[in-house]
Amino acid sequence: MSVESRRPRVGIIGTGAIGGFYGLMLARAGYDVHFLLRSEFETVARQGLLVNSAVHGELHLKPVQAYCSAADMPPCDWLLVGTKSTGNAALGPIISQVAAPNATVLLLQNGLAVEDQLRKVLPDSVHIVGGLCFVCVNRVAPGVIAHQAFGAVSVGYHSGPAVDEASRMAIVEACAALFKTAGIDAPVMASLPQARWQKLVWNVPYNGLSALLQAGTSQLMADPDSQALLRALMDEVVQGAEACGHALPPGFAEHLLAVTQGMPDYRPSMYHDLVEKRPLELDAIYARPLTAALAAGFDMPRVRALYQALAFIDRGNRPASEE
Amino acid sequence: MSVESRRPRVGIIGTGAIGGFYGLMLARAGYDVHFLLRSEFETVARQGLLVNSAVHGELHLKPVQAYCSAADMPPCDWLLVGTKSTGNAALGPIISQVAAPNATVLLLQNGLAVEDQLRKVLPDSVHIVGGLCFVCVNRVAPGVIAHQAFGAVSVGYHSGPAVDEASRMAIVEACAALFKTAGIDAPVMASLPQARWQKLVWNVPYNGLSALLQAGTSQLMADPDSQALLRALMDEVVQGAEACGHALPPGFAEHLLAVTQGMPDYRPSMYHDLVEKRPLELDAIYARPLTAALAAGFDMPRVRALYQALAFIDRGNRPASEE
């Protein structure tokens, strides 16, 4: 906890759909939340943050403690990182500026080994906790977020000054308590890599096919061919996880299909990234799992084919200035 | 040969890029060629047929013996079928009306077992010859065809009144002679199924990916990921062919990649079918090879994934009136 405040102070690095939603929920629960923004700074500073939630109703946060530069933010005990994993290598100086001594950085991203990337650019004194968000949220306009369903964040210790299991568990439990106070379910994960593989069983098929086929979950589930492809991709990821030593619960793919079937139509972030010409999170969600599974002796042929098709699309999707 | 004419009479069923190109070449060589058209009948009857060829220059055929109904056409000794394989089941009455006794129907389509479909709807007296076109042509406007490269048609006997090998060979040789007179290379195929599998090694990757990724051959070859995917798909088709008893020449995939590398940028028919909202030829090029290979014990995982993605796209691509 920082010395400047008795309330835990939370910094939101990247106020998109994920950062905005959880930051707003924490602020409403009474935490001292500071939001770092880029292009949407002026709008949010003026209008506040709005979450239109199918679960909680219309939630408005105003005023918002908004910043357009990390240098202006106070030191934070908790840092929630909701930026795209494609930018992780550049986060070092930003997070280092905002982190209180012994701060905990909670990385709210999909994909494999995203924490390893961040570890390389952060001081040793900072804890890194991995967070997996089971939530359907989208940014619909500057400062406006639609929350369609769910909300839980699974948390697991990655690395940092906590050297023994008990002190690691204390950090993760504190992290879970932070969310629970705000009404957000936050299960503690026994194994972060296992949990990341488990989440990939959903992200690999749905994120990629939503972008490739320009469709939401309902359409992908309703068509017999795309549904069969979703299932085949899931089965490959389950086998890839097993090859890497992470046996998943029996019937896990069926479970995810049933959960998705019951969801409102949802377009995962990769769909929106493609439409809005942002880089796709292909390394974290595809390339690293493919490399890990192949090193463990299992190639995932359909996953690789999907990755290759998406990599082709991603290269052609950058604004001319990036070429 | 029909009794009405000493020149062989050729009927073109479906005057798109393939039918128009070969029909025009045969007409220029002196054959008595009759073209069946649908939507482009009036334009072609008025303006003739134009082939802008990178090989032969600008070729104009005018007047064209054009028909909008098979009932008006004279009986033909040779029928060249250049329609989409998706419409084969409906070709019976049309071809039966135009076929002279003992006519030979040359089916100029891609994919597997397209002749089997046609056999079911044609009288026993008619020969069916399969034809594989190695040609880059596209219809660019009504009655206007761009010919970018190549032109050969490989021919092989499928079924009909020729009961022994010698009489089958006589039909196929006559078919080859027809093309050769018009300056078109026409190798005789020892095995039609083998040749159809061999051609699939090109069509499966390039047709499907050009539609899925909305790109021509040059772009697909230049990108390292799509090139690797092309190659992986080719390898699967080669293995599928082998499982079905059709060993292909060693190094065949490399050969095709090199040939395509040397081609002008080309967008295969499936690309154009998608853009123009026509049904994609998925049964002939994907579903039937997948079924045949699976029955022989080999599933083609990437080919199946591509097929499933294309089937999803195809269903969403039909005009509302077809739904």
Automatic annotation (TrEMBL), chains A, B:
<dbReference type="Pfam" id="PF08546">
    <property type="entry name" value="ApbA_C"/>
</dbReference>
<dbReference type="GO" id="GO:0005737">
    <property type="term" value="C:cytoplasm"/>
</dbReference>
<keyword id="KW-0566">Pantothenate biosynthesis</keyword>
<dbReference type="GO" id="GO:0015940">
    <property type="term" value="P:pantothenate biosynthetic process"/>
</dbReference>
<dbReference type="InterPro" id="IPR013328">
    <property type="entry name" value="6PGD_dom2"/>
</dbReference>
<dbReference type="GO" id="GO:0008677">
    <property type="term" value="F:2-dehydropantoate 2-reductase activity"/>
</dbReference>
<comment type="similarity">
    <text>Belongs to the ketopantoate reductase family.</text>
</comment>
<comment type="function">
    <text>Catalyzes the NADPH-dependent reduction of ketopantoate into pantoic acid.</text>
</comment>
<dbReference type="InterPro" id="IPR051402">
    <property type="entry name" value="KPR-Related"/>
</dbReference>
<keyword id="KW-0560">Oxidoreductase</keyword>
<keyword id="KW-1133">Transmembrane helix</keyword>
<dbReference type="InterPro" id="IPR003710">
    <property type="entry name" value="ApbA"/>
</dbReference>
<dbReference type="InterPro" id="IPR036291">
    <property type="entry name" value="NAD(P)-bd_dom_sf"/>
</dbReference>
<keyword id="KW-0472">Membrane</keyword>
<feature type="domain" description="Ketopantoate reductase C-terminal">
    <location>
        <begin position="194"/>
        <end position="312"/>
    </location>
</feature>
<keyword id="KW-0812">Transmembrane</keyword>
<keyword id="KW-0521">NADP</keyword>
<dbReference type="InterPro" id="IPR013332">
    <property type="entry name" value="KPR_N"/>
</dbReference>
<feature type="transmembrane region" description="Helical">
    <location>
        <begin position="12"/>
        <end position="31"/>
    </location>
</feature>
<feature type="domain" description="Ketopantoate reductase N-terminal">
    <location>
        <begin position="10"/>
        <end position="159"/>
    </location>
</feature>
<dbReference type="InterPro" id="IPR008927">
    <property type="entry name" value="6-PGluconate_DH-like_C_sf"/>
</dbReference>
<dbReference type="InterPro" id="IPR013752">
    <property type="entry name" value="KPA_reductase"/>
</dbReference>
<protein>
    <recommendedName>
        <fullName>2-dehydropantoate 2-reductase</fullName>
        <ecNumber>1.1.1.169</ecNumber>
    </recommendedName>
</protein>
<dbReference type="Pfam" id="PF02558">
    <property type="entry name" value="ApbA"/>
</dbReference>
<comment type="pathway">
    <text>Cofactor biosynthesis; (R)-pantothenate biosynthesis; (R)-pantoate from 3-methyl-2-oxobutanoate: step 2/2.</text>
</comment>
